[in-house]
User: Fold this.
Amino acid sequence: MKRLERMTKQELLELLAAVQARLAELEAQAQEAQAEARYEAASGPAGEARAKGHIEWKKVNGCGPYAYLRWWEGGKLKSKYLGKNPDGGQR
Assistant:
């Protein structure tokens, strides 16, 4: 804590920005893990072939972000809604 007392305002602002950026990264990782868990739960019984795809986060009419599972099947891009970001934060 004594180090903080010696820091200038500019140094404190830079530290704050770095901490906020890291917290945003951790939140994004947690959201991705939640979306993956929802995907696993929605994929069907164990042993059933699962579609290969990716999670896409989208805003709809300025709201969201919302998680969608996206994959190709039969030459068409399919999607399945997985859920909204629980805290409404940015993704």
User: Anything to note?
Assistant: The chain has two helices and three strands. The chain has a mean pLDDT of 80. The CA atoms of residues 54 and 70 lie 5 Å apart. Strands lie at 54-60, 63-73, 76-84.
